[in-house]
Write a structure and sequence with these properties.
The chain is an alpha/beta fold. The protein is 46% helix and 21% strand.
Length: 175
């Protein structure tokens, strides 16, 4: 295994998980969990990121404006299904005050998230879609604070650059 996340505690030969002690450890754990999930080891992936907190685990998926690329959406659905996580799609619009513009953006974003929401529901995944206005890093920080229990973030490279290091959560960019 790439990391030594298993160690013997109570019984020799009996694996147990260690808790991540830093953001770097947590990022490494999430990286390993995603790799395990992609390799078909869902139970191991789930064990790597299991927390004692309450609520369902969520993966935050940041769209590009009001759209979600097909590669990002497909990857998010695949990882969420393998890890048994919910999906939270986020569309971030410019901080314009014009209510007509905001309504139009919200409708476009909802239309763009619709196919991914339907695909997630067909796979029995819980999915939500949020629309926020402002900068990407502010919108993500506010959403993470208000929602809690977000395991990690998936985004395209441009949005990933804006969020990098802002939340303390693992960030994976999908090209």
């Amino acid at each position: 295994m790439p990391r030594n996340w298993l160690r013997n505690t109570l019984h020799p030969g009996s694996p147990s998980l260690r808790r991540a002690k830093s953001v770097e450890d947590r990022l490494a754990d999430y990286t390993e969990a995603v790799a395990l999930a992609e390799a078909g080891e869902q139970m191991l992936a789930s064990d790597v990121i299991r927390h004692s907190g309450t609520g369902r685990r969520r993966i935050l998926v940041i769209g590009h404006g009001c759209t979600f690329s097909s590669h990002l959406g497909e990857y998010a659905l695949s990882v969420a299904e393998r890890m048994g996580s919910d999906l939270l799609f986020l569309s971030v619009g410019l901080p314009k005050k014009d209510p007509n513009w905001r309504e139009s953006f919200s409708q476009l974003a909802d239309s763009a998230a619709g196919p991914w929401r339907e695909a997630a529901e067909r796979q029995n995944l819980n999915v939500q879609h949020e629309v926020r206005f402002g900068t990407v890093d502010e919108a993500v920080s506010e959403l993470v604070r208000s929602c809690g229990r977000i395991e990690f973030i998936l985004s395209e490279p441009e949005e990933g650059e804006q969020v990098l290091g802002q939340t303390g959560l693992a960030l994976f960019t999908v090209k």
